[in-house]
């Protein structure tokens, strides 16, 4: 209900590897700005789901208390919080239990989209052309050994009516299948999203689901799958 109130035209393809998932999505509103995140926690199944619960709560706490709704500022604060929570002892160090995440904020009054990502990119499709907004290469839960502060890059885009925004984990492009049991890979994933971008969001979700189900073809799903599409 909350997602529909913020994004009347959207879809979510959510296919956990097990009953529970290490991927999660979050949406909320602060200071008149919609904030949305798609995250991929370390692991899947029960360990991944445990991290999802913790990650969800940490993210919500950071967004509630962070002074800025700038996605990069949220990611910077999120990284520090994860390191603090999971470091052993008094010395802060890179932790095993991080998450890859994309965060957007959307000001519907100005149609301004801001994005920051930790290894999770953002795709914007406009008039059948896909633009990849690349994420920073470091995940969250990172401390640089040379003492530099870990920061993430903020990207700003002006949206137009009809634009499709896609957020996702790596589960879809990394899924093995097809006749040669190879990964689906990102290039065909981009082509697929571009191809379906003009369809209704309901048809897009169905097309993606059918494509990955056919690709797996009864074999093992190797990771959690999460794709969110938002039509502006």
**Amount of beta strand:** 25-35%
The helicity comes to 25-40%
So how many helices?
A: 6
- Overall mean pLDDT score? 92
Order of strands in the sheet with most strands: 1-12-9-6-7
Q: Main beta sheet, described? A: 5 strands, antiparallel
Number of strands: 12
Distance between the termini: 18 Å
Indicate the structural class: alpha+beta
Please outline what is shown here.
This protein has 232 residues and is an alpha+beta fold. It has helices spanning 2-6, 45-65, 71-86, 171-174, 186-196, 201-216, and strands spanning 10-15, 23-30, 33-41, 99-107, 112-118, 122-126, 129-133, 155-158, 164-168, 176-177, 182-183, 225-231. It is globular, with a radius of gyration of 17 Å.
